[in-house]
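Lab notebook, bench 4. Still working through the backlog of constructs that have no structural model yet. Next entry is a single chain of 296 residues. Request: give me the structure tokens for it.
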Amino acid sequence: MEAVNPLALEVTLAVQQELQARWEETDRLRRAQVDRARYEAELARRRFLRVDPENRLVAASLESDWNEKLRALGEAEQHYERQREHDGQISDPNQRQRILSLASDFPRLWRDPNTPQRERKRMVRLLIEDVTLRKAEQIEVSARFRGGVNKTFSIPRPLGYFQSRKQSPALITEIDRLLDHHNYREVAALLNTRGYKTGGGLEFDSVTISRIRIAYHLKDRYDRLCERGLLTLSEMAEKRKVSVETIRRWQRLGALRAHPYNDQNACLYEDPGPTDPKKGIRLLDHPICKEAQCEA
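Model written out:
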């Protein structure tokens, strides 16, 4: 927008005046072609009218020539009108003033949120002749405005597809922390509640959390629970010398604490040791466990 200033627009107007002069000269030549076709058609008409009607062969030939000249005149007139409409004619002092007013109106119109994108594109096409891009560490942009003004500036290179979707370090740290206590579905729900978005601007789901964990080499929840000493279902059943169904029943009734490690609620189990840390009694003395021992 710095290039859209009164000086640049004055230069543009000077070029438009030159173009106007050239257009007028071209229009004069085209109009002369129409006048020439009209003269030849009129000349053919006079020849036909002067012929002796009794001389039918000559009359037919002159009539055919007259019709051909009339067709040529019609085509010349249509071509002339099409070219005038295509070229247009740069106008009066009022239009000059409107062009100059763009220096103050252009920034306002460009920034106006009500200006449609298609109108912004039209404004750019009216002001810019062409744009050249040179790719290096940054992209160098050379814009040539109508009227001869040039503007060169640099912009950062856009990020590639994978870079644009790269997650922030703070987000990765938060996901790593949440995986200590939650499965993928729970992590995704917590991030969405806190307003986090993926690199593509979408909400999180279980699949996305899993992919991020793999991409950033985060430890999965299963390994985290194993490192804390939690046991699998079969390991807990073997240690307590009961069946896996008994372990599941203890879990349902609250005698054992289970931690899901995936979205299918597969769990690892805390080993409370010889005593129940909540009750302060021996685990095997827990009523539920004693009942299971009797059944065994």
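Notes after review: The first strand starts at residue 128 and ends at 135. Residues 237 and 244 are 5 Å apart (CA to CA). Flag for follow-up if needed.
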